[in-house]
Amino acid sequence: GAGVSQSPRYKVAKRGQDVALRCDPISGHVSLFWYQQALGQGPEFLTYFQNEAQLDKSGLPSDRFFAERPEGSVSTLKIQRTQQEDSAVYLCASSPLAGGRTDTQYFGPGTRLTVL
Amino acid sequence: GENVEQHPSTLSVQEGDSAVIKCTYSDSASNYFPWYKQELGKRPQLIIDIRSNVGEKKDQRIAVTLNKTAKHFSLHITETQPEDSAVYFCAASIRGSQGNLIFGKGTKLSVKP
């Protein structure tokens, strides 16, 4: 079946612009995660959804970052007033089970954000 | 919070040799340890994982070992092939949490033909 998809794959923004990154998880997956991957680094956790509920946003680096998953499927990560330090690959991952049970996470291809 | 250290950061081997990548973690509550392979510009792909109730798991040329006492786990790739060249990440997840993964910084493996 279809895997996790993300769009756009590449985004160039001028400093100060707002951006919206989309994630389509695997159908039926309960859990959805967003990670930020800086160049040459491992992914770092941003936020977690169980269905439509955002249960953990402790990894969001500032209040300029906002995520939602209103119907428990597609998720959007929004970054307001982008800064150069926001340049990174933003990865989305989904897993079939609810939180509290560790399970395989399936990653999307990521969105590479470049802020000029 | 949990911290995962990964070594080495780069590893170069000849085709057919074995490769070993090691990770340590800090939180004894961690109970799930996946390994991901990421080719340049591609998504991380799970290659093998292990849970804290077993000490070793093998899948063809790939194996993972876990030492809970020492809080370290290792990836072993035997009979390496050029297509094994990629960046490998270890990760840990804490029992009872929602399952978010804490990743190491990655190991760039180069397999020379």
Structural description of this entry:
The complex is a heterodimer of chains A (116) and B (113). In chain A, a hairpin with a 2-residue loop joins strand 5 and strand 6 (53-56). The model of chain A has no long low-confidence stretch (mean pLDDT 93). Chain A has strands at 5-7, 10-13, 19-24, 31-37, 44-50, 53-56, 65-68, 75-79, 88-95, 106-107, 111-115. Chain A is globular, with a radius of gyration of 13 Å. With 116 residues, chain A is mainly beta. Chain A has no helices and 11 strands. Chain B is mainly β and 113 residues long. Chain B starts with a strand and ends with a strand. Classes of the chains: A mainly beta (116), B mainly beta (113). At the A-B interface, strand 4, strand 5 and strand 10 of A face strand 4, strand 5, strand 9 and strand 10 of B.
Q: Helical segment tally of chain A? A: 0
Compute the average pLDDT of chain B: 93
**Relative helix content of chain B:** under 10%
Q: Quaternary state, please?
A: heterodimer
- Percent of residues in helices of chain A comes to under 10%
- Could you tell me the mean pLDDT of chain A? 93
Summed up:
The complex is a heterodimer of chains A (about 120) and B (about 110). By secondary structure, chain A is an all-beta fold. Chain A has strands spanning about 5, 10-15, 20-25, 30-35, 45-50, 55, 65-70, 75-80, 90-95, 105, 110-115.
Q: Key features?
A:
heterodimer, A: mainly beta, seven-stranded mixed sheet, four-stranded antiparallel sheet, 11 strands, globular, B: 113 residues, mainly beta, six-stranded mixed sheet, five-stranded antiparallel sheet
